[in-house]
């Protein structure tokens, strides 16, 4: 077995488009994934992330653009010749075969005979901690167990690239969190390139080296979790990754500064947007603090509001503050901070330097299903 | 309160069961009659009609003829019907709806109409009374049953398994052979049985296209009973009843074992 660094394949999508009739599923998507990288395609349903995965797997042909896997173009290469492991949300285990035969399936197709085949099946099942279940039928396993078998089947033939399409989508939260760590471990041990599709931004943050955020058939931003959270380039990314508060109002620019006027108060940010863009401001929950009305500092930006929802999280509290213009702000506070009740009149306090200035975009709205 | 209701319901079920099965059961005692009549109840006991069935060349020839036609028909109908069902399953739904209706027509067209048509065509093509003629006609009649049975199992078959097989390195043909086929096998098997039975007890078309050289069992039964009320008919009926009960019972057993998995 080769060393981890040489085992993963690089993927290069250049200006890939996919159309179904008049519907554009992918609109000139370009994405380079490094060998051995854990790349997550994140986005709401219908954003193009699964289509991208299907294009890489060979289940969907592109309408235009180029796609290289491991330095070679795979346009026109059928799925069964691409040697790419795929894990599906619905497990897709063969119900008429025992676990060991399921895992042996890709090896049998490659003409690998016993005892080599048996050894590799055992090794793959060991890796997903399912070694004792080889004689079972898939229907005798729980969802989490089935998905682990599916993972073993997808890695047993040592593919240089593993694709996972919402593999944990059908599992409950605790199991999901545990399997996320398992997937991370397996990625580390194999050194294979992983491409992971999910609509769950927390899952994306836990797993990925880098995340590509999809919306309406395009990539909005590619970056590490920290980059996406701290420096969102578009309003959609700001809203989709992490909680956020969006401030809208009459905008004015002077020199290198942009200001938004909300209910008679000006909020300023030291940045300018390109001409023609309508500015909005984005704030992360931990950059916001609350004080009872009139009790806050005078030197910082404050906005009046009323507590609309108070949620106790164990490690702290989360508040939804209804602002004067009925928009909602999300504030997270620590355990030792002052607590508020629904209906309390408060001031929302934040530093001007924590404000992210972004261009408004009506396509930034999304629905999760 | 609940008990009398349940007893009444049980009695009613029994009544329906008797009504459904009684006419079939009646042939059993009749087959042991010691006189050459189809009287019920029989006047004495004898095995002679069973003996006659197996020794009289007219009867055994028709049984062999029927089996030959039914086996060949079942094989053809199963292959054609399975491929058709698979094609219909993978087509655009609007086209497949029309095609499906078309392929099912032999089942809904009155048998006599079909038989007249077939007879007319066969007269010109010299197919009357031939093996080829019987197999062609019966395959046409049996294909719809296979299509329905196989379509039903394709309906519940998860096509995504074929995608998974492809990702693991299987060509379409390999995926079909190793994944699709084993999973829809119960449907194909029941289609095969239906096709066999359809041919084996088909009488209308058979009456039209029969000849002294090739006669099927139903034709023989029909001509024998209209000619001389031969109790051999009852013996054949009893044998068929036992064999079909066994086959269907075995089928149900296999089905229920598969269902448990």
Order of strands, widest sheet of chain A? 6-7-8-3-9-10
Helix content of chain A: 10-25%
What top-tier CATH class of one domain in chain B fits best? Answer: Mainly Alpha
- Global morphology of chain B: globular
Sheet with the most strands, sense and barrel status of chain B? none
Calculate the terminal CA-CA distance of chain A, rounded to whole Å: 41 Å
Mean pLDDT of chain A: 88
CATH architecture classification name of one domain in chain B? Orthogonal Bundle
Q: Which structural class matches the secondary elements of chain A?
A: alpha+beta
The number of distinct helices of chain A, counting runs of at least 4 residues, comes to: 9
Strand content of chain A: 25-35%
| Helix vs. strand class of chain B | mainly alpha
SS elements, strand count of chain B: 0
Shape of chain A: elongated
Q: Helix and strand string of chain B, N-terminal first?
A: HHHHHHHHHHH
**Order of helical and strand elements of chain A:** HEEEHEEEHHHEHEHEEHHEEEEEEEEEEE
What is the CATH-assigned architecture of the largest domain in chain A?
3-Layer(aba) Sandwich
Helix content of chain B: over 70%
CATH superfamily of the largest domain in chain A: P-loop containing nucleotide triphosphate hydrolases
Most residues in contact: chain pair: A-B, 26 and 18 residues
């Amino acid at each position: 077995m080769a060393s981890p660094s040489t085992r993963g394949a690089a993927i290069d999508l250049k200006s890939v488009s996919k159309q179904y009739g008049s519907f554009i599923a992918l609109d000139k998507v370009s994405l380079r994934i490094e060998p051995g990288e854990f790349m997550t395609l994140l986005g709401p349903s219908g954003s193009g992330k699964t289509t991208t995965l299907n294009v890489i797997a060979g289940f969907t042909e592109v309408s235009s653009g180029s796609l290289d896997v491991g330095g070679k173009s795979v346009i026109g290469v059928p799925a069964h010749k691409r040697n790419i492991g795929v894990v599906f949300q619905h497990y897709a285990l063969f119900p008429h075969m025992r676990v060991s035969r399921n895992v042996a399936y890709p090896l049998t197709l490659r003409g690998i005979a016993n005892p080599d085949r048996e050894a590799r099946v055992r090794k793959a099942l060991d890796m997903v901690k399912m070694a004792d279940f080889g004689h079972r039928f898939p229907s005798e396993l729980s969802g989490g167990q089935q998905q682990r078998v599916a993972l073993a089947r997808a890695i047993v033939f040592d593919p240089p690239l593993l694709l996972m399409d919402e593999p944990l989508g059908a599992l409950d939260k605790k199991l999901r969190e545990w399997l996320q760590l398992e997937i991370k471990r397996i990625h580390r041990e194999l050194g294979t390139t992983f491409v992971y599709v999910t609509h769950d931004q927390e899952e994306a943050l836990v797993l990925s080296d880098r995340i590509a955020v999809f919306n309406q058939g395009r990539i909005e931003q590619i970056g590490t979790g920290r980059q996406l959270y701290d420096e969102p380039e578009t309003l959609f990314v700001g809203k989709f990754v992490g909680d956020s508060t969006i401030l809208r109002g009459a905008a004015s620019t002077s020199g290198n500064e942009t200001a938004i006027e909300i209910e008679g108060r000006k909020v300023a940010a030291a940045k300018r947007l390109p001409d023609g863009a309508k500015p909005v401001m984005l704030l992360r929950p931990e950059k916001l603090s609350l004080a009872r009305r009139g009790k806050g500092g005078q030197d910082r930006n404050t906005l009046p509001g009323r507590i609309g929802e108070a949620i106790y999280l164990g490690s702290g509290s989360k508040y939804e503050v209804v602002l004067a213009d009925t928009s909602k702000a999300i504030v997270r506070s620590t355990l030792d901070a002052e607590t508020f009740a629904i209906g309390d009149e408060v001031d929302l306090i934040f530093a001007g330097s924590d404000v992210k200035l972004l261009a408004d975009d009506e396509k930034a709205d999304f629905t999760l299903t | 309160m609940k008990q009398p209701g349940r007893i009444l319901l049980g009695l009613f079920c029994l009544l329906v069961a008797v009504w459904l099965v009684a006419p079939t059961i009646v042939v059993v005692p009749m087959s042991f009659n010691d006189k050459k009549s189809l009287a019920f109840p029989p006047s004495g006991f004898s095995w002679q009609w069973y003996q006659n069935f197996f020794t009289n060349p007219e009867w055994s020839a028709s049984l062999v003829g029927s089996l030959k036609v039914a086996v060949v028909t079942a094989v053809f109908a199963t292959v054609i019907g399975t491929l058709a069902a698979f094609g219909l399953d993978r087509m655009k739904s609007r086209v497949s709806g029309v095609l499906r209706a078309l392929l099912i027509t032999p089942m809904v067209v009155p048998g006599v109409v079909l038989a007249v048509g077939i007879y007319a065509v066969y007269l010109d093509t010299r197919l009357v009374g031939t093996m080829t003629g019987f197999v062609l006609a019966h395959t046409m009649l049996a294909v719809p049953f296979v299509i329905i049975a196989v379509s039903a199992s394709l309906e519940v078959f998860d096509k995504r398994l074929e995608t998974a097989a492809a990702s693991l390195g299987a060509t379409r043909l390999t995926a079909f052979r190793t994944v699709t086929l084993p999973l829809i096998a119960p449907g194909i098997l029941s289609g095969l049985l239906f096709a066999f039975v359809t041919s084996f007890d088909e009488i209308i078309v058979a009456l039209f296209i029969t000849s002294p050289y090739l006669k099927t069992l139903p034709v023989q039964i029909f001509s024998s009973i209209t000619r001389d009320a031969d109790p051999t008919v009852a013996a054949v009926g009893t044998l068929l009843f036992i064999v079909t009960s066994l086959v269907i019972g075995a089928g149900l057993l296999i089905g229920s074992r598969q269902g448990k998995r």
